[in-house]
Amino acid sequence: MKLGQYDTFVVCDWDNLKDAFANDALLARPAKGFISGIEETLSVIAMSGDVWREHRRLSLNFLRNVGLGKREMETLISEEIHQFLSSLEDDANDLPQRLMPSVSNNIAALLFGRIFYYDDPDKIMIDQGVQRFSESFQLTGILSFFPWLIKPLIALGKANLKVISKTHQRMHAFISKEVLAHKNKVKSTEIEDYIDEYLNAQSKRKDNLFKDMTLRRNVVGFFVAGSETVTSTLTWAIMYLVQYPQYQEKIRSEIQEVIGTEKRPDFSDRLRMPFTQAFLYEVQRIESVVAFNLIRRASQDTKIGPYNVPKDSLVFFNFWSVHHDPKLWPNPDKFNPNRFLAENSTKVVKPPYLVPFSAGKRACPGEGLANVELFLYTVGILQRFKIKSDKPLSFDAHFGLTRRLKYKPDLIFEKYLSNNSI
Ligand code: HEM
């Protein structure tokens, strides 16, 4: 179909999606990024071609060597979750609203090597920025098709682009300070965070591909990509725990059996908690928070299945329809974690067509970190609280960067474990 000036393709079924994941001609993003006119320098999320490949390699190396699967990062996350749960001792009913600042602290740990107190003005500014960017994604979809709209929209003061642009400036000013502090710190051979990794690569390269401005854009990109997605998935998880108290109890009994009440959860505990894992898979399937992927572009004439895709066409991957395809998922609209269980419910099986993080060479590089967070937050919350509601719940969604819960739910977080020592 034609949207604006672009041929646009939406890949809706698993066979074609598998093809598209493996197609190197579909790795690019829209030529001018997602918000042309505001983001002249593209972040790794919006880049294409060789510059993307180099920046992606750096991000993956960093996540592998410093960020993921490392005890230190899991310890930092566990510390942050502890800070978060302790902050709820007086008023746990505020939990969903307080999730984002906590989740974004994990990204801060990755980028800056430290976490913030929730009332730190810089932290409040970052979280407001992340919120605004996520909301602006509704608009960025439209602007990818009608890029000429950007200037009239700014001139008319419409679509709060001015606010986005101001938010941009404030975040960049703060990140510049952090980068400067990293440049000035006593030189150590150890890479402690993403800024260290980037500056180190920058100093070794002669081609000027790694620029300070790009570093700042990447930091903002990581905050946006890593905060809203995890927060939104966790919020949906909480809703399903309330809607299906029997599943909440099942997870709690796995917690009792594997972790108990004295110890903080560990990511390795998941290996003995198949139902908890199945529950999180089902939340990701049924809500598909990044429902249409981030827009891809054909960098040359190519094909998806039998369809010819001309160069520069825009391509959406419709994860929602694959995740709700009755040929792949019997009774797809029913929330049923048991569909992922096998061998008498002792094993969890993830089929290849569950793709909340996309797949192939441009798949989400934060999947490992996100999985650690989803598990540790869910288990940490249920170790302390029983969650319920005495009002009917609305599962209506709102579209931004992710599909988010539209209305603030009325939830009751009943303290289950008063022991604050874990
Ligand atoms: C539940 C949580 C998350 C979901 C569902 C999710 C999903 C996605 C999806 C669908 C994409 C687009 C991939 C494509 O174009 O094929 C993506 C890209 C990306 N994600 Fe995530 N993500 C999550 C968490 C995270 C986290 C925690 C981080 C940070 C560590 C992160 C960083 C990124 C980055 C940097 C990209 C751009 C990659 C590129 O263009 O090369 N994400 N994510």
UniProtKB/TrEMBL annotation:
It is a peripheral membrane protein. GO terms for biological process: organic acid metabolic process; xenobiotic metabolic process. GO terms for molecular function: heme binding; iron ion binding; oxidoreductase activity, acting on paired donors, with incorporation or reduction of molecular oxygen, reduced flavin or flavoprotein as one donor, and incorporation of one atom of oxygen. Its main location: endoplasmic reticulum. It is found in: Endoplasmic reticulum membrane; Microsome membrane. GO terms for cellular component: endoplasmic reticulum membrane. InterPro entries: Cyt_P450, Cyt_P450_CS, Cyt_P450_E_grp-I, Cyt_P450_sf, Cytochrome_P450_fam2. Keywords: Endoplasmic reticulum, Heme, Iron, Membrane, Metal-binding, Microsome, Monooxygenase, Oxidoreductase. Heme binds at residue 364. Pfam families: p450. Its cofactor is heme. May be involved in the metabolism of insect hormones and in the breakdown of synthetic insecticides. Belongs to the cytochrome P450 family. This is Cytochrome P450. It comes from Tetranychus urticae (Two-spotted spider mite).
